[in-house]
Amino acid sequence: MSGASYLEIKEEVRRRIQAQEWASGALIPSEKDLASEFQCARATVNRALRELASEGLLDRRRRAGTRVNMTPVRKATLAIPITRIEVENTGAKYRHKVLSAQQRAAPAAIRAQMNLDPGEAALHLVTLHLADDLPFLLEDRWVNIAAVPAILKAPLEEISANEWLVQNVPISAGDIAFSAAPADASEAEALGIVVGSAVFVVDRTTQTRGQTVTKARLVYPPGYRMQTHI
Amino acid sequence: MSGASYLEIKEEVRRRIQAQEWASGALIPSEKDLASEFQCARATVNRALRELASEGLLDRRRRAGTRVNMTPVRKATLAIPITRIEVENTGAKYRHKVLSAQQRAAPAAIRAQMNLDPGEAALHLVTLHLADDLPFLLEDRWVNIAAVPAILKAPLEEISANEWLVQNVPISAGDIAFSAAPADASEAEALGIVVGSAVFVVDRTTQTRGQTVTKARLVYPPGYRMQTHI
DNA sequence: AAGTGGTCTAGACCACGTT
DNA sequence: ACGTGGTCTAGACCACTTC
What we know:
2 copies of one chain form a homodimer. Chain A is of the alpha+beta class. Chain A is 27% helix and 37% strand. In chain A, strands 5-6-7-10-9-8 form a 6-stranded antiparallel beta sheet. Chain A has a 3-stranded antiparallel beta sheet with strand order 1-3-2. In chain A, strand 6 (121-131) and strand 7 form a beta hairpin. The longest helix of chain A has 13 residues, at 6-18. Chain A starts with 5 loop residues before the first helix and ends with a strand. The model of chain A has no long low-confidence stretch (mean pLDDT 94). At the A-B interface, helix 1, strand 4, strand 8, strand 9 and strand 11 of A face helix 1, strand 3, strand 7, strand 8 and strand 10 of B. Chain A binds a DNA duplex through helix 3.
């Protein structure tokens, strides 16, 4: 093999962008030209550029060519494990407690998102996840029964809804939002903290085939950190 | 072309895992076998499986083969734009104000991380980022002068350290942590909020070639949400 | 219409870890 | 030693978008 590898090409392209040999927003040479410059097959250049584009450094379009992205966006990948695994990875013993499980009419906002008829019931679950018997996470979840009727037969005392859904609902799309909020009275009581403490909140919506299956609000007590590495 | 595309193969592999036709932790057929099953080239299967592995669904090893990952970890990619861009994307006018800029001895924790000699100075910056002249983000940053001496000549009143560093330092790696915390007195004053309010905190460390270049604590006022999509 | 990137093929050699 | 995935090639056709 005489030419460069796709990793070498990635590195070199990164260098040229950093050194501003290829200016921000500018068109870079075509795959064909780069393949001839680097003495390699076009597929090799393609892989290098494709990966750099997925990292946010390049912007590629058919016919229009490849440009250096004007606003280099760093992308961090956040691993979102099942809560049980997250707890067990810290070395702690995992346990969860279903504080409340009811089929009842959902609030309007949730009803709209799940496309429920007025008065149609959804499953409302409040679950406390514990690490070594200490509160780790309070989960307030609505489940669309029409989308996953089997959930009514799930042994939710043994396997958390979180885990059951991951195992039984096909991989799907979803939105996640992170924020900070003061703990309200019920959250404070469940987590054993002072009302108004700063809690870390994750709001998650999960969809399958365009249908909203579940919507969860996860409340972590003070001290919790969600970490990642770029 | 008679066979399946890499996208079709990804979809089918996902389905088999979901349907437990391929059990969690089990070995799946080799690329060669799948290529013959799907009537396509091995490279096509390779691309499908490689991408699924990068999404956390599969675990691949030479000679050992490809296994279904036991702990399916959902991965969300978080886009981390420059603050100016983040503000401008909301339609607001961006402005920043350097509240403090000093070269001084860093606290021990930071000195250790940056490999500074005792007493060696680092650059300490406190910057308030504004959206339509309202506080958007308070940034407390330490910069390793030895790693980027040019920062001392940067016009930090015009271009924020955040943006200057992104443009001038080839960033190789970094850690990010998200948490919730009560605002302390100085944070509350800068952001115009009540002491103890729940603020969203991002702690970021950035390295180049193994050397820690900068460490920043970003404090967002109540109401801020960091969103993403799976 | 033309040129770009997107994908696929059939083959090859290599790196690596398990056996 | 062997079989796996990792990568590369030279060519091909296609999809899309701009010209």
